[in-house]
Amino acid sequence: MKTREPAEVAMPVGPSPARDLRHRAAAVGSSLAGPAVIATSVLIVLRAFAFRGMLTAQHPDLLSTFLPSWCFLGRSLASGHIPAWNPHVMAGVPFAGDPLSGWANVPVMALFSIFPCAFAMRWVIVLQPLVAGLGVYWFLRTEGTSRVAATVGGTMLALAIAGSAFALALAFAATLTWTAWSLAGAARLMRARSWPGRLVWLALTALAWGELAATHLSNGTVPGSIALVIYLAAKAASQVRRGERTIADVAAVGGLLLLALPLVNLWYLLPRIGYLPRSTLGQGYVRLQQRLSHLRGVPNNVVPLGGINPTFPLRFTVPGGVYLGALAFPLAFAGWRDRRLLHLVTAFSLFGGVSFLIALSWTVRHAARHLGSGSLGSFYLHETQRFAFPLLLAIALLAGLGVEAWRRQGPLWERAAWLIPGLLVWALIAPALGIHRTLGWLPVATIFAGIAALAVAAYRPAVFPIVVGLVAAELLVMSVGPASALGLVAARRAGQMRPYLPLQASAEFPASSYFVERPIARAIAAGGQGRYLSIAPSVWSTLGYHVRRTAPFWGLMGAQQSMLFDLEEGQGYNSIQELRYWEFVRVVDPKLIRYNAAGFVQAEPIALDLLQVRYLIQPVEDPPAVAGEVPMARQGRWVVYRLPGDTSRASLATSWSVAGSSEDALTAILDPGFRSADRAIVDGRQAFEPSTATVPARAVSAA
User: Fold this and answer.
1) Mutual orientation of helices 391-406 and 342-359 as an angle, nearest 10°?
2) Which tens digit of pLDDT belongs to each residue from 225-249?
3) Domain housing 523
4) Is 185 within the bounds of a domain?
């Protein structure tokens, strides 16, 4: 008898652990590929700052405004102190209340309080375009676009900033960064279904908006808020139309966000609210210039109206400087073909259009007739071309949406038709208007290769990543290859503004060298109590001493190096100053000052007295500015002198007079018979009468 072998039973076989791990790794790699492209591209372009320890003197505000202020902020926070007052510059000024001080700027506070100032400054330059690109990526992904579309938009914005001097215009680069992140937070807010989730995203969106204000209170907050409002309105209308939300629901979210914006950012807003009314910003630029005309002997340096010309956006098609890439404009028009994206394309087209319109010189000229001299009107009329900066963000977002629209099913001819408007603008209209006569082989090759890749991807979606490679490769070559030098010539011929010029390697220097305490700084530190002034008429600019920022001028100490070396000076630079000090500088030493520089070209006795100046820094070839001054140290073409006399911080005035206004007070101190040791001038109503009794007294200066 034969025995039958038991039949084998087929058992279900699940995925093996190794295969499951590979799938997970592939999924994670796919999700990180876009951010990795953005981050790697920025690091390649800005490798001198990221890895080679370099800083640059290309942009004046980087070394003279942001670096010293943020270094002072970081040292203070690291020691457990919130700096409400800055004793180092302009004879002492409010600090936390200064909108550009860095207070409440979370990345700046973190970097400068943890790392050395040189490292922190270099990585602020690197991180801002990188984070801006990631903000665009996150926003587009939240809105449901593909990774390819989000990567194209993020790469265009990141490399447009990183590949030009716009990366060094830190406040304006940060404006685009935090606008992108406020949009990303708002996108998550509009997708959240539960109230706990909504409250979290409300807070994060409000915090991103606060960072936008902390980077640039005026030219950053206004366009960023416009972008946020337009996006939220378009998104809400789309959701209500589709039945995803009710009008009441949308109104509740909008009302809570309106409350959250100031409440979450009270730590930023409260110090500024207290300071701005007594500052130059509270007066407005036009009113300040009018005020100058009433002060004795002060030239009225009227700042001309700004604005852009109608062809300005086409300059983004000029290789060199702020260049969005050859595919940016063709793709920016393609999003209109996809009805799913219509609300987003409409929103960012409107945002770009508003940015263009309010920055247009035609608009500025007509608005100047009606806005008057108030602070709001003069705020808008001053440097109006800055309102065009958000066009970079709008075009990058529209290009990403254009890639996504191309993916929608449809005949190839119909898809290609939506590229034609952008091609006309980029390749025909711009050259016809003289924006560029020749594009070079690389942009043209990118256009042809890009269109070919899009055509193939219409049938083989796996080819879509090639579009990302083309965008990144072209922008990288234009930023770091031989074409970058040619781009500088092209950008200058096209009349690019300073922030739009390419980065210049010739302006770079080792960051550590800027923090070396050299002979003049050492001499002042060893000399004891007292402030210094730089007196150099031959190198004075109407923009101030701070624009003299290359190594041969470091000995002049006119770029607020006092904050780096723990010294004190009676001069400085800040676009927002206390009104009393602003008037004092212009009355005591009349000269043309185009902006809010606070420097001296004459060693006026009243300035030396009231600012308690003990040291003067002058060119070696200049005669002594004050009789009896003693040379202490020489550094290159500069020498520091110690002045004769006492500069104690406390003095006793036995009599005083009351001035009815600040103008009367300034007139009184300019009287040849005025001596601060004998009489004080009180601005305002007299609260008490001076005593007639003779009481022995002395003033004591605390160390």
Assistant:
1) 160
2) 999 999 999 999 999 999 999 999 9
3) 516-642
4) yes
